[in-house]
Design goal:
Length: 171
C-alpha cells in the first residue's frame, strides 16, 4: 500500500504516488521508447492523470531549485531540469524517476503549495534538503517547524557506501 495516500485526507490537493515494478519501466534509459511511453501513459491513467498534464523533472544531482509561481511558466512544458521544485500551480503533475535516491516532499498545513526534492548523495552533500526547506519557507512565509516532510522509499543505509571523499568528483 502507498503510505502517501493517507495524506490525501489532510491535503486533498496533493497527489503523491509511487510506481511499482508492475507498472513497467518508466525510463527511456532502460527501455524502448514506445514501450516506455505506453507504460507512462498507463501508469498516469491508472492514478487518474492525463499524460498531457505531466511534467518530468530531469535531475542534475546538484542543488538546483526551481520556483514556479505563475501558471504561464509551465505553458507547453513537458520537462524541466532541476533537483527540487516549489510550486503552487494546480492541475500539473510533476514526476521524477528515482533509483536509490530519496524522494522528499515538503507540505504546509493550510497552504496550497508544496516542494519536491530528489536527494542523491551529491545533492545531499550540497545541502539540497536544507536549501529546499528554507526556500519553501520563504516562498510561503512560514517557519520550518510548520512544515511536514515526507520521505519516500530509497536505498537502505546498510547498502549505501560513502566512505571515499574522491566520490564527490565522480559523475
Amino acid at each position: 500500500m502507498n503510505k502517501f495516500h493517507e495524506y490525501r485526507k489532510i491535503f486533498p490537493n496533493l497527489l503523491v504516488d509511487i510506481s511499482t515494478k508492475a507498472d513497467g519501466n518508466l525510463s527511456f534509459n532502460y527501455g524502448g521508447k514506445l514501450e516506455t511511453q505506453d507504460n507512462r501513459i498507463n501508469y498516469f491513467s491508472k492514478i487518474g492523470i492525463d499524460i498531457k498534464n505531466v511534467i518530468k523533472i530531469n535531475v542534475l544531482h546538484s542543488d538546483e531549485i526551481i520556483v514556479i509561481n505563475q501558471e504561464n511558466q509551465l505553458n507547453d512544458i513537458t520537462e524541466i531540469n532541476a533537483d527540487a521544485v516549489i510550486t503552487r500551480y494546480k492541475n500539473k503533475y510533476f514526476y521524477i524517476l528515482f533509483g536509490d535516491c530519496i524522494p522528499m516532499i515538503f507540505i504546509s498545513p493550510g497552504s496550497e503549495t508544496f516542494a519536491y526534492a530528489h536527494l542523491s548523495w551529491k545533492s545531499i552533500c550540497k545541502n539540497l534538503h536544507t536549501k529546499t526547506l528554507l526556500e519553501y519557507c520563504r516562498f510561503i512565509n512560514t517557519n520550518p517547524e510548520n512544515i511536514i516532510i515526507l520521505l519516500g522509499p530509497s536505498i537502505k543505509a546498510d547498502s549505501y557506501c560513502f566512505s571515499n571523499p574522491s566520490q564527490l568528483t565522480m559523475p
